[in-house]
Amino acid sequence: MRCSYIRLLVNDYEACFHFYSEVLRLPVLRGDETSRYAEFDVESGTRLAINQREVMAEALETDTADPALPHQDRIAVIFEVDDVDVTAAKLVADGARQAMEPRDWTAWGVRAAHFRDPDGYLLEINQPLLPDLAL
Fold first, then answer.
1. How many angstroms separate the first and last alpha carbons of the chain?
2. pTM score of the predicted model
3. How far is CA 34 from each of CA 10, 18, 38, 50, 102, rounded to the nearest angstrom?
4. Residue 70: what pLDDT?
5. What is the pLDDT of residue 120?
6. Do 65 and 11 contact (CB within 8 A), yes or no?
7. At 59, is the secondary structure helix, strand, or coil?
8. Rounded Cα distance, 109 and 5, in Å
9. Are the C-beta atoms of 117 and 76 separated by less than 8 Å?
10. Phi, psi at 57, each rounded to 5°
11. In this structure, which CATH number among 3.30.450.20, 3.30.950.10, 3.10.180.10, 1.20.1260.10 belongs to the domain 2-133?
């Protein structure tokens, strides 16, 4: 597993986009002020991404106001793997709590599965659907 992204799940996407692109002056690799998802170059092998919080909640069919997870899904750590299905099965067998089974996210260009760590943080494992769509 290789940590490929740190994804901040934000409430005010436009303000955050301007902060990272104009205040911190991070080069924008993908997205714009209206896309609800953007990636920034942080001069490392891991990218910083921002995502409108509700988009992720809708994708995972979760409630952003879930009292069981009072700060649910403010951040996601993304790991790229060679085979999502094999890795997900191994993680489940080893006791990981799966939030969403593996599936193709064609709009994102990846096959991904989602898990929660013991403290409730969101983890994603993914692999590119097509090599030229690698994220």
1. 15
2. 0.75
3. 13, 11, 9, 12, 28
4. 47
5. 81
6. no
7. helix
8. 14
9. no
10. -60, -40
11. 3.10.180.10
Contact 22, 64 (CB under 8 A): no
Q: Count, in order, helices (H) and strands (E) of the chain.
A: 3, 8
Q: What is the pLDDT along the chain (135 residues), one digit of tens a residue?
A: 899 999 998 889 999 999 999 988 999 999 999 999 999 999 898 999 999 888 887 777 776 566 555 455 788 899 999 999 999 999 999 999 999 999 998 888 899 999 988 778 889 999 999 765 444
Three-state DSSP state, 116: strand
Domains of the chain, by residue range, sit at 2-133
Per-residue CA distances from 98 to 3, 10, 69, 116 (Å): 18, 23, 15, 6
Q: Tokens in use for 116?
A: 């929660």
The residue behind tokens 């990636």 is 39
CB atoms within 10 A of CB 102: 19
